[in-house]
């Protein structure tokens, strides 16, 4: 079942990436939304700040992703109101995993298929990145990940050669941009824009918002 879910997510098409840096976390995503071989949207936001301490990047069916984001936002708010304690990023990731697990295990004609990267700031100011697979497993990321996005092979291949434990957030921004460029050049389901967020003790900040427009050049003879 897990392998079938992973294959389904890969078919949906997207590129997301999270990079753990020595002084924070960098997350990025492309903007293309597809349905089979058709581009449905060129401006779909796949990297969403949930609140002032958590951001998620989504790979999967668009409607499932939109609903998951609404549920995460509401559940985290309810948890904080009930306990009067702000959840940690691990708790938030486990919540997302639990939602994904129960959604996929319920009998449905069309199952919910979403893979998620969750990055954020803990109450003590530390930052963390988690990857949540479509079947609900939540795992802490110590280096980098692209979940099960269709651009994953190109992103991970690039970061395998270029990421270091000493990578700073400033360097991580450039790595994220280049990783998505590598993906959008080879993955037909990714492209049309790049969004990059930094997650540090200063908060969750969007540092890159690029549109990718086609240009035509005369071929040199």
Keyphrases for this structure?
five-stranded antiparallel sheet; 36% helix; Glutamine Phosphoribosylpyrophosphate, subunit 1, domain 1; alpha+beta
Task: Explain what the structure shows.
By secondary structure, this protein is an alpha+beta fold. It is 36% helix and 30% strand. It contains 5 helices and 12 strands. The strands form 3 sheets. Strands 10-1-2-11-12 form a 5-stranded antiparallel beta sheet, with helices on one face. Strands 5-6-7-8-9 form a 5-stranded antiparallel beta sheet. Helix 2 packs across helix 3 and helix 4 packs antiparallel against helix 5.
- Listing every helix as H and every strand as E from the N terminus to the C terminus, the arrangement reads HEEEEEEHHEEEEHHEE
Poorly predicted runs are: 4-11
| CATH topological fold name | Glutamine Phosphoribosylpyrophosphate, subunit 1, domain 1
Q: Could you tell me the radius of gyration in angstroms? A: 17 Å
Q: Work out the helicity level.
A: 25-40%
CATH class: Alpha Beta
Please, what is the CATH homologous superfamily?
Aminohydrolase, N-terminal nucleophile (Ntn) domain
Write the layout of secondary structure elements.
Layout: H1 2-12, E1 16-21, E2 24-30, E3 33-35, E4 38-41, E5 47-49, E6 54-60, H2 62-83, H3 89-105, E7 114-121, E8 127-132, E9 138-140, E10 144-145, H4 152-162, H5 169-186, E11 193-200, E12 203-211
Antiparallel strand pairs: 1-2, 1-10, 2-11, 3-4, 5-6, 6-7, 7-8, 8-9, 11-12
Helix pairs in contact: 2-3, 4-5
């Amino acid at each position: 079942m897990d392998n079938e879910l992973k294959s389904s997510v890969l078919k949906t098409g997207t590129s997301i990436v999270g990079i753990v840096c020595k002084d924070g976390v960098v997350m990025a995503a492309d903007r293309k939304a597809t349905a089979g071989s058709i581009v449905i949207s060129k401006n779909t936001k796949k990297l969403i700040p949930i609140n002032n301490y958590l951001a998620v990047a989504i790979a999967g069916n668009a409607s499932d992703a939109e609903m998951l984001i609404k549920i995460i936002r509401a559940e985290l708010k309810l948890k904080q109101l009930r306990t009067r304690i702000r959840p940690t990023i691990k708790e938030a990731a486990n919540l997302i995993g639990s939602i994904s697990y129960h959604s996929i295990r319920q009998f449905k004609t069309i199952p919910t298929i979403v893979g998620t990267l969750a990055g954020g700031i803990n109450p003590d100011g530390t930052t963390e990145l988690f990857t949540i697979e479509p079947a609900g497993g939540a795992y802490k990321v110590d280096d980098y990940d692209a979940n099960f996005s269709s651009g994953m092979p190109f992103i991970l291949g690039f970061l395998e050669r270029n990421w270091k434990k000493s990578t700073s957030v400033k360097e991580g921004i450039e790595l994220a941009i280049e990783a998505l460029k590598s993906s959008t050049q080879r993955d037909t389901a990714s492209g049309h824009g790049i969004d990059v967020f930094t997650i540090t003790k200063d908060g969750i900040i969007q540092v890159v918002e690029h549109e990718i427009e086609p240009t035509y050049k005369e071929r040199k003879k």
